[in-house]
Amino acid sequence: KSYVDLIGESKEGVILDSEFSGHHMGAWINPDLFIAEYARGFSVKNFTLLNGGDPRSDSCSGSINLRCATEFEFNNIHVEGCVTFYTFDAKCLKDSCEIRNIVMYDNKAIVALDLENVYDFDVYLENIRIRKVAKSPYSTKSGGGSGLNILGNSSVWPGDGRATIVNLEVSDCDKYTAPDFAKIPHGVVSFLYDGYFRLINATIADNVSDTPGGGGLKVSDGHKVVDIYNSILYGNEPKNLILCNDTYDPHETNVYNSLIGGGYWNVFKSGNCDLFWDDTNIDEDPLWVGDSNLEEFPYMLQEGSPAIDKGTLDIPDFEFPEFDLAGNPRIVNGMIDIGAYEYQGVTSVGGETLPNIEAFDYKLYNYPNPISLNENTSGTERSMPGTTISFQLPKSSQAVIDIYNVKGQFVKRLINAELSKGEYSIFWNGKDEQERLVGSGLYMYQLSVDEVIVDTGRCTVIK
User: Are β-strands 174-175 and 162-171 bridged in parallel, bridged antiparallel, or unpaired?
Assistant: First the structure.
């Protein structure tokens, strides 16, 4: 209903498994009543959605379906294992909507995230990860494997239709095209028809299209302006950037401070397209960390990447989010990188750092592990729920122990002190800097000695 929120306790705590019986969520209005009684002013937050759709049907709908919705927010949603036409399908949007902190992993669909805007619109997407989308093996009529489609159809050119996408990753998707459309280039990210689109700090990587000229980002048809800032389009086959337009008036694409594989001369262009290519753009290997180092975030930048500090903060009418796609600070030392991930000075997730570890065995560990945070009011602080982290120092040093969650977000500093040579233990009660109990999940603790990260450990919190 309008003005009614649906908010879960957490993604980990609220898991809705459809078991391929249909969709998870729907907001349906007669599609002929575009301007009457559509749902508005609602929020949906903190869920994990598994196995949506019906693989036995060629017309299976998405895990999330919206029709004629407006002024809504989706936040902190994980969608995995769905077999659908559109995993997240929102049509007939009007006015404003926000979609933040969405992970879509290993789904089979025509499009993972599909937004169609019939009237003037204002769409904001932030922190969106779409990985490993493929065609449903049960679909016989349509293609599949696209990550993100935004279709604008503003009523007046240049119109008020507007979409801003920041901190986007679309990677390792396999775009299959139905035979009737096999000659048309298709991208795993597409901006279609009228409107103004901004893509800021995106990583579109290692996607494959089976159409000539297809691949990464496609800008297609209509009267539009597309501004691309601080983004990486690399490793997409056969092309990284595709521009197509069969209409009379040209659409305009502007690229600034971005890393595009193959550079200007490798852009696929067909029809009436204007392309502005700023001299701040580069064509080099982005030097991602890769699966062998950080399996959860393989498209983070490693030391020496040409994308480090090469972005621009000068984007009109835009305020950067506080964090990047991994939950690390988005701006470091007053500068910003190219791509969805910000290099923090070390290749790390939650402070887990492998290079430059000193040879000394600091014997860093914690006990008990897992940690139970169930209420226990008997005894002193050390008998309360929590864990003891132990370590040793080879000499007098400044020692720091920090706790991070699995996204790399800082949780709490346990100690920052000058300590003599010897063995030490410190108790963590499972609370953050604001003395709130943390949620269930995996946490990392990091030992720094004289400002050098020397060892890390992991612990699991359960409630």
Answer: unpaired
The pLDDT tens digits for 10-38 are 888 888 887 777 655 654 433 333 333 46
Q: Among the ranges 258-262, 299-303, 352-356, which has the highest mean pLDDT value?
A: 258-262
Q: What percent of the chain has pLDDT over 90?
A: 32
322-343: pLDDT as tens digits: 889 988 889 877 789 999 999 8
* pLDDT attached to residue 112: 81
Distance in angstroms (rounded) separating the CA atoms of residues 388 and 398: 20
Q: What are phi and psi of 66, to 5 degrees?
A: -125, 140
What pTM was computed for the model? 0.72
